[in-house]
Design brief:
By secondary structure, the protein is of the alpha+beta class. It has twelve helices and 60 strands. It has a six-stranded mixed sheet with strand order 1-47-48-49-53-50, with no helix packed on it. A six-stranded mixed sheet has the order 16-13-2-17-20-21, with helices on both faces. A hairpin with a 2-residue loop joins strand 44 and strand 45.
């Protein structure tokens, strides 16, 4: 999942940085989705529509309404199905161009609802994300979901008798003739002067109209033809003319872009009590249901058809009704996995969100809660293992508290700080914005055309001293709407125009789904906890397979501080992104203009749709992949919608932080080219822009500025082209693209040799190739910095890293384990020229099939920074040793032989003689008696069957014992008789989850290592526990991370153990190693244990040194970043992304 952190070994470290691989035996079929994604506990999202009478109005904001002239067109009777505004409450804005009120209220500069020629007005979205039909300009419906209410011919004069608004603010009832397709452009000057406006009538006699660059419906934008302009105006009239129409447009588009991993209910603020799933409920019109199939269609039907009566705005009563609904504890209620039916299960980890939108100010009578945000809350116990904090109690403090009672903010606070289900364990996932682990409700509040009095949060720097009294003014009630979101740890926005409303609501849904996303990886910019320390976290959303990369400050206790940036929200515009690729011959920019420069096979792949039919959309697909959204379904195109950003999911790829590296190549032999200049090269890189590199399943490796989060460049490997058309398909189901791990090293190379920094990238399950990029200057990366892509018939899916090394024949090379599913189905080691990508040597292991070799661990025997030995594990449980010590590359081979046959150093088999696959990278350290200790865990987690596989896996420390001449012998025994067994002796079953392990000594005169079977005590239960993450050597200790798959949806795919053992014996250390009491100290008050456990599958840890402590920080599939604090034996080396050779 993430880049390994390298630390010292028993005496001194051989530091081998590798990434967590997720390979599978070649005989098995790779899963195309992360295996830790269980049957999800989808969040409840309750949307409450403002159905007050003001939503019928065609003018916004309210301050523009004079003499009850609320409409810009004469209305059809009961156009929205409810009671009408009649008599003196029904007046219409005039059309006379000399009437300044007519001009201003028909100008989008003033009336934010009115037609804006720079905006493209799309029809409403259907449940499947496609759009309803364009309105007919000669018969544009007044209500697109109730065409029986009639239509307006926008292309001819119309004559009607109503009360018209005059320029002096009076009204006059008479029959007037007007041309309906008209708008006014504001030219500057007094807004109450007709001369400040220009009238534009959209008539067939005028052939051209000026619009804006966003008018993608106009072929020659910003110039539009009459047909294009009248069509856009007709769409505005039918779908956006009033507040309720534009609200439905925005809500529909936001929800249509969402996946099915949510449960949605629909409500309205004026909905009285009704029976919902067997119980009397207010506000709701439908109970929560899965957002798919007929239930999804039903939500859109209710949204578009709900009657809008001429009534008030009871916001407090409406929110209270939603809160009471969420307190139901019956199996038909909102907590059940089968709402509305008997017999459902009620998961404890379900999250609940309420979206309340309104165009006005609350007007209801409400009491009973008092000033709840100014009163202490109940103390809640955190039932997560190793929870921090263990308890939580709300205490009144700004920006939450105020001095007023029964406000909307009080209602929100009540249903946030109250445990809505005291009968359920408190294990609701938390996030950076919401610390509540008990069952509660979060409110997202949305204002339409309304503004409050505050511009900053009370209590914030430069902000006001407190919240205003909501009963003091109408704008203060909008502040209360904001306050309600703050109190419940939600979000608020107020939109003054249709475009802002639609994008704001989409962002709200994005932020909700982001709160239930899965974490994938973390890394840091330092190995020491000091000023400027940051942690970077990757997350993804399996609803639409979007991704995020976040940067946080680290606090003094190594907890997450403030969010500094999030990369996906600030990707450059698609036309400005620097994206490159390889056409099989050379690098080039990945642009539509370069389509013809791609290989014939690449062009053909892009020109095909997901069904394999040539649709000629190759260049458009490149645009979509670059981030152009104009071709998406929601914009009237045919490509997949990306509502949550264009960055793809980051799942198994590491986060690689690179600035200045130090491989100590100034210690190369004196005659080695580049040796004398390495020090100055390294020093010059101290000013290099720091970058976070990661692969994503949008088909690209991304390079993000680590200080700002801005993407510097991206790279599309040639090997992923065959699947890129899948990404654009509306029926897209997940698959991997750039899902492997990158490695970066320095090398002296080139036609005119010079020091370069080179990145090697693998694709994981996304393809069978390895690529090389010159990232010496990442800010100015260009097509010439694309070095090569390597493929071979026996190169399979490589999940771990390829490594960079100086070798004994004088070459700089990439060293690659072949992964799995190569053509021969065997395990191979590849050695490839780093400059050209040409194959130097291909070393077979043995004839075993259903096999593959994984991340190589590189060893320098004599300290000259030239690699002599490579270790690597395979799917058959073999640890292979390769001898590269000769200057003649033809002599490089497997180190141990039986006759002419290659034999491994060791083969891992459990007590049932089952081979134990080695898919985690190896850690290597010196043995105290000479030779090397090889540390690894066994197991795999990539095939669907792996989730239920219970075969016994183990942790190992095996000794490659060498004699005085450097020769060694393999461990011939396959029954582990020459290894010392340690056992897990005890394990707690309630939090805090802890383990103890035996501490048997190892007699090195007869033993070649140690092992621990991953069995649950006391009965030795097989749980399917395994280790697929690189172990970490740390001052005589070896740290393993294990996982136990689970189908419990509230366990985020499984559980994990972080095990800390004596590296020499594999046993438990005699003194406390974990800060078990959480006091920030390691002493006799801490328990002596060997492991701590928690929910979720844990990524590889980042180690941060803080005085006498080390903080092991990792992401888990719960979405959280988890910290485990251990003792620090000595200051670790400065973190660098390399192996010390």
């Amino acid at each position: 999942m993430k880049t390994g952190h390298v630390i010292s070994a028993i005496r001194r470290a051989i530091l081998l940085l590798v990434l967590m691989p997720l390979p599978v035996q070649a005989a098995l079929s790779l899963s195309d989705v992360p295996l830790f994604l269980t049957t999800a506990v989808d969040p409840n999202i309750i949307f409450t529509l403002d159905d007050s009478g003001s939503m019928q109005f065609e003018i916004m904001p309210d301050g523009l309404i004079v003499a009850n002239a609320r409409f810009v067109y004469p209305r059809a009777s009961s156009v929205y199905g409810g009671s009408d505004y009649t008599g003196t409450n029904y007046r219409v804005v005039d059309f006379n161009p000399s009437n300044w009120r007519a001009a201003s209220l028909r100008s989008s500069h003033i009336n934010k609802i009115y037609y804006d020629p720079t905006v493209r007005y799309l029809p409403w979205s259907k449940a499947d994300g496609s759009l309803m039909g364009n309105a007919n300009p000669s018969c544009a419906p007044h209500n697109p979901f109730d065409t029986a209410k009639g239509c307006r011919n926008l292309t001819v004069n119309d004559t009607q008798s109503v009360a018209w608004l005059e320029s002096d603010g009076t009204v006059k009832t008479e029959s007037r003739t007007f041309y309906p397709a008209v708008y006014f452009l504001y030219n500057g000057g007094p807004i109450n002067s007709a001369s400040s406006y220009t009238r534009i009538q959209i008539r067939s006699s005028t052939s051209s109209y000026t619009s804006g660059p966003g008018r993608t419906d106009c072929a020659a934008a910003p110039s539009c033809t009459y047909d294009e302009e009248i069509q856009n105006f007709a769409n505005w009239y039918t779908y956006y003319r009033s507040r309720i129409l534009l609200a439905r447009a925005g809500v529909g588009r936001a929800f249509a872009a969402q996946g099915s991993n949510m449960r949605v209910a629909f409500g309205a603020i004026n909905q009285g009590s009704s029976t919902i799933d067997g119980k009397s409920t207010s506000t709701l019109i439908t109970g929560v249901r899965s957002f798919s199939g007929t239930d999804r269609v039903n939500f859109f039907d209710k949204l578009y058809q709900h009657t809008i009566p001429a009534q008030g705005t009871p916001l407090r009563t409406a929110m209270d009704g939603v809160g009471k609904y969420l307190m139901r504890n019956d199996d038909k209620g909102p907590w059940s996995d089968m709402p509305g039916q008997n017999g459902g299960v009620q998961p404890i980890c379900r999250q609940n969100y309420h979206i309340l939108m309104t165009d006005g100010y609350w007007s209801d009578s409400f009491s009973g809660l008092g000033n709840t945000d100014n009163a202490d809350g109940d103390k809640h116990t955190n039932h997560f293992p190793n929870a921090t904090p263990a308890t939580y109690q709300y205490k009144p403090v700004l920006p939450y508290s105020d001095k007023y009672s029964n406000t909307l903010a009080d209602v929100a606070m009540h249903y946030w700080k109250t445990d809505l289900r005291t009968d359920l364990a408190n294990k609701v996932p938390t996030n950076a914005r919401d610390p509540a682990f008990w069952q509660h409700m979060v409110n997202f509040t949305v204002g339409l055309g309304v503004e409050g009095t505050l511009t900053g949060l009370p209590g914030s720097s430069g902000g006001p001293s407190g919240w205003p009294d909501p009963t003091g003014s109408e704008p203060a009630k909008i502040d209360d709407l904001w306050h309600a979101a703050v109190n419940s740890r939600g979000e608020f926005f107020s939109a003054q125009d249709p475009a802002t409303f639609a994008s704001g609501l989409s962002n709200a849904l994005t932020n909700i789904t982001a709160r239930v996303s899965s974490a994938a990886a973390v890394t840091t910019n330092t190995s020491r906890l000091n000023t400027g320390a940051q942690i970077y976290q990757a997350k993804f959303n399996s609803a639409d397979w979007s991704g995020q990369l976040l940067a946080f400050n680290l606090e003094s206790d190594a907890s997450l501080g403030e969010l500094q940036w999030e990369a996906s929200s600030q990707l450059p515009e698609h036309t400005d992104r620097s994206i490159f690729t390889h056409n099989g011959t050379s690098g080039l920019a990945f642009t539509a203009a370069n389509f013809s420069s791609l290989s014939t096979a690449q062009q053909a792949a892009l020109d095909k749709n997901i069904s394999g039919v040539d649709d000629g959309q190759g260049m458009a697909r490149i645009g979509w992949l670059r981030g152009d959204k104009s071709g998406e379904i929601s914009q009237g195109g045919s490509f997949r919608n990306r509502n949550n950003g264009v960055l793809g999911d980051i799942v198994n790829s590491d986060l690689l932080y690179i600035k200045s590296l130090d491989f100590s190549y100034d210690s190369l032999p004196a005659a080695t080219p580049g040796q004398a200049s390495y020090h100055s090269y390294r020093q010059s890189n101290n000013s290099r822009t720091p970058v976070v590199y990661t692969g994503a399943n949008d088909g690209m490796l991304h390079a993000f500025n680590a200080e700002t989060g801005v993407e510097l460049f991206a790279y599309v490997p040639a090997a992923v082209y065959s699947g890129l058309n899948r990404l654009t398909a509306s029926s897209y189901t997940h698959r991997y693209f750039v899902d492997g791990n990158a490695y970066v090293g320095d090398a002296y190379m080139g036609a005119t040799p010079a020091w370069k920094t080179v990145l090697l990238g693998t694709l994981g399950g996304g393809g069978k190739s390895v690529f090389a990029l010159d990232i010496t200057d990442p800010v100015n990366f260009s097509e010439s910095d694309v070095l090569w892509e390597f493929t071979d018939a026996d190169l399979g899916y490589v999940h771990g890293q390829a490594k960079i090394a100086r070798l004994n024949d004088g070459s700089w090379a990439a060293i690659i384990g072949n992964g799995y599913n190569g053509n021969s189905d065997r395990a191979w080691l590849f050695i490839v020229d780093l400059q050209t990508g040409a194959l130097i040597k291909k070393i077979p292991t043995n004839a075993s099939t259903s096999n593959g070799l994984f991340t190589p661990a590189l060893v320098d025997n004599n300290g000259d920074k030239i690699i002599d030995v490579v270790y690597a594990g395979d799917l058959r449980g073999n640890v292979w040793k390769f001898d590269l010590s000769q200057s003649d590359s033809t002599q490089w081979d497997v180190a141990y032989k039986s006759g002419s046959a290659s034999v491994p150093l060791f083969t891992a088999r459990n007590a049932s003689n089952q081979a134990q696959p080695i898919t985690s990278p190896l850690e290597v350290g010196y043995h105290k008696q000479g030779g090397y200790m090889i540390f690894f865990g066994t197991g795999q987690f990539v095939a669907e069957s792996d989730k239920t596989d219970k075969k016994v896996q183990s942790l190992y420390g095996s000794w490659d014992k060498l004699d005085s001449t450097g020769k060694g012998t393999p461990i011939a025994e396959t029954n582990r008789s020459v290894l010392q067994q340690q056992t897990i002796t005890a394990e707690t079953v309630i939090p805090p989850f802890e383990r103890t392990v035996s501490d048997h000594s190892v007699d090195w005169s007869t033993k070649r290592g140690w092992y621990i079977d991953l069995l649950q005590p006391p009965e030795g239960t097989q749980q399917g526990e395994r280790s697929v993450i690189m172990p970490m050597l740390n001052f005589g200790r070896i740290i393993f991370t294990t996982l136990i798959p689970s189908i419990d949806p509230c366990e985020a795919g499984g559980r994990n153990w972080l095990m800390l053992l004596d590296a020499e014996t594999g046993g438990m250390m005699p003194k406390p190693q974990f800060d078990t009491n959480g006091d920030g100290k390691l002493n006799s008050t801490d328990r002596v244990i060997a492991a701590v456990g928690s929910d979720g599958i844990r990524s590889e840890s980042v180690a941060i040194s803080a005085g006498s402590l080390t903080h092991l920080i990792a992401a888990t599939t719960t979405g959280a970043v988890e910290k485990v604090t251990i003792s620090n034996g000595a200051p670790p080396p400065r973190r660098s992304w390399k192996q010390l050779q």
